Amino acid sequence: MNFILLSGGSGKRLWPLSNDVRSKQFLKLFQNEAGEYESMAQRLLRQLRAAFPDASVTIATGESQKSAVLNQLAEPDGGGISVCCEPARRDTFPAIALAAAYLYSEQGLGEDEPVIVCPIDPFVGPDYFAALARLERAVRQDAASLVLMGAAPTYPSAKYGYFLPGPAPAGQGENGEGVRPVAWFREKPSEEQAAGYIAEGALWNCGVFGFRLGYLLGILAGYLPAKTYREVYEHYGELPRTSFDYAVAEREKAVGCIRFEGAWKDVGTWNTLAEVMSQPALGNVVLGSGCENVHAVNELEQPLLVMGAKDMIVAAGPDGVLVSDKHQSSYIKPYVDGLHQRVMFEEKSWGSFRVLLEGPHGHSMTVHLAVRAGGQMSYHCHQNRDEVWTVLSGRGRATVEGRETPMGPGTVLRLPAGARHTLRAETAMELIEVQLGCAVEDADVKQF
Amino acid sequence: MNFILLSGGSGKRLWPLSNDVRSKQFLKLFQNEAGEYESMAQRLLRQLRAAFPDASVTIATGESQKSAVLNQLAEPDGGGISVCCEPARRDTFPAIALAAAYLYSEQGLGEDEPVIVCPIDPFVGPDYFAALARLERAVRQDAASLVLMGAAPTYPSAKYGYFLPGPAPAGQGENGEGVRPVAWFREKPSEEQAAGYIAEGALWNCGVFGFRLGYLLGILAGYLPAKTYREVYEHYGELPRTSFDYAVAEREKAVGCIRFEGAWKDVGTWNTLAEVMSQPALGNVVLGSGCENVHAVNELEQPLLVMGAKDMIVAAGPDGVLVSDKHQSSYIKPYVDGLHQRVMFEEKSWGSFRVLLEGPHGHSMTVHLAVRAGGQMSYHCHQNRDEVWTVLSGRGRATVEGRETPMGPGTVLRLPAGARHTLRAETAMELIEVQLGCAVEDADVKQF
């Protein structure tokens, strides 16, 4: 099977754990059976690999998430996972079109092959993957040019899209996979409207689409005379900034759908996240006396003590601290928009960095770097700042202006402004980086 | 006037801002008229200096608070303030006895001179100082050997001590300062008992005592054949571990008291602290919609966002985060006792340090050092750890094994284990210190 997993979005709604570069799907909030914490993206990919060990998986994402995708999801040998990176964020139609061209020209996938597109972060159980298999069979049977999956709604949400499965065409029963035509689509209605749709029999639009590769390349040809990844990449800006639902699904006459009865959750707010957390507290948290219906997540090393709180979310991380009534937590976005805050934690292709201290007037910044075993930074320099690296643990090799230096616990390396440098970790490494200059800012990086 | 200000106590009840080495009186939570934040100790001392510009002030404290006292309260020229430091924590009687000996032998105070002892941290207005002056006059008039101050209670608190002013002795009216004999003392009663005491006319024991110096030296002589600071210091362990109330006030026949009608608060819990905060939020705090009766203090640089909270205290600092219902916040102590946490922020005589990152297995620690202009560390070394200093800002001179090095922004200095070193700041300095070794612990310091 061929999957395109869509990884997009920015993470204001799960602030302070998510931020502009750390979307909700990368937060390690879920405990697997081995007791390890994994992110929504890691959880879904693990489930997908278990259900379809031979599947080919392409993750469609943007530059800002590429590092997190590689850091969390890439396997040393590739593991059948490719990353297709947009040159700029547009919307789901261009992203899926680019990924389709990638499958065609870079993976050599035939135009007759079915492709399943789905989000990287729904919270689902094993029955979801059985439904994906059903969807793929429906595509193979040519039940429709485009087949969608709809989840049976459990409440009239104003946050999801809806579609109504119509009656099977006259003289023709449902096929074996239960495919029905789609009668109409409705985007994010009021709760009252949503209740009416549900009474009619409408389903939640899960953002899961199945089609033969050639079908989508045909639609792409209507926008761009391009078929290969390189061509689409170069002309990406000419594709419309529009969703796949709008550009394809809602315009297609022969669109079919299957109904998925199992549990399906888009964990996009603190309130919905709390519903799927396996335990009320995560991290260094003490829930004291009098707490009722409290969920607390603490990513800091220091303890979080909660006493006598009711119906609340408490979340603490490098970017800040949130204390919110559960209901109110859905309205967090405008407050977070108003914070104008720098990103304090970011995943990189080589590991992660966390800001420990910002000096006044932007003249210094102290950062903790964690480099994966085998992780390697790009060869780069900074124009306006010196850096001092002190190795806390692990071993590796730094290269500064072409000269290699072995690095181990206690090694101190000065990197003057302008000096090209990189680091390759042999074992997992931790370093303290002190940045010093007249204007210390993230944008001051020149890569070679 | 001669004051002994008692600075003691550890700060579990205002966790996470207070801790074992940072008592509540040193938290900078109060805005003065110039808009600057000051601690309870700084506030009281400022008020005292304004009321009695010529007063001599001796601060009686312990080793663990000495640095904070010097850092917050010492003036460059001394400013008439001395610090009398106990060799070990015992209780208020030994501390006051040592300070009395200090006034006698080190300050040359005559045995006839009145001395006023009071805590360093009540939250009071100017009328409190007028009452202190009244107390001193009563001592000068020999209204009693020992004169106490009692505050008019505003509610039946179970946390304070009470005493009852008795009728003036037969044939003798109150003296001009309103001194009455004390009929009885009661320690920390139940709220019900407290209500009964108040109905009888009892006052809160403010912990304020006035006496002639010779009176206390006489009582001290009953425990130790010692009168000078050095003698009492050397035999400090032989003094009973008991309070001044128990050892002196409650045994004295000729104990008088004056009544203070003004506002007096012992700001010892989050709940009482919230009552005297001039604004509901302090630090980088956003109080979002739906907040009612919320007080929030944030000592971290990162934002704290509170939404839809009611009747709550939120406090965030280097040691952790507290989220508590206001009423519940009085019961914090056993939870904090259970945290077994290292101190993340500490004031030093030369400035302050804050732990930014603890490495795993105690093999490293990254610390931010802020050194006052003119601040100087002791000449010291560490047995089991190397240190790397990187200067972020400011200028000064380091001495390592007798060799002096100028220090400025960007200077990196390695301090191998065993190397004696010190730093003297010419201007205010900030440094990052990385500690590395097989066992990085606070106790590993040898001073010269």
Lay out the secondary structure:
The structure is a homodimer of 448-residue chains.
Chain A: E1 2-6, E2 28-31, E3 37-39, H1 40-51, E4 56-62, H2 63-73, E5 81-86, H3 92-105, E6 114-119, E7 122-124, H4 126-140, E8 146-151, E9 162-165, E10 180-186, H5 191-200, E11 203-212, H6 213-221, H7 229-234, H8 244-249, E12 255-260, E13 264-266, H9 270-276, E14 281-283, E15 285-287, E16 292-298, E17 304-307, E18 310-317, E19 320-325, H10 333-337, E20 345-348, E21 351-358, E22 364-371, E23 380-381, E24 385-393, E25 396-400, E26 403-407, E27 412-415, E28 421-425, E29 429-437, E30 446-447
Widest sheet, order of strands of chain A: 20-21-22-29-24-27
Helix content of chain A: 10-25%
Helix and strand composition category of chain A: alpha+beta
Number of strands of chain A: 30
Large-scale geometry of chain A: globular
Distance between the termini of chain A: 38 Å
Report on this structure.
Two copies of one chain form a homodimer. With 448 residues, chain A is of the alpha+beta class. Chain A is built from ten helices and 30 strands. In chain A, the strands form eight sheets. In chain A, strands 20-21-22-29-24-27 form a six-stranded antiparallel β-sheet. A five-stranded mixed barrel of chain A has the order 8-11-9-10-12. The first copy, chain A, is globular, with a radius of gyration of 24 Å. At the A-B interface, strand 17, strand 18, strand 19, strand 21 and strand 22 of A face strand 17, strand 18, strand 19, strand 21 and strand 22 of B.
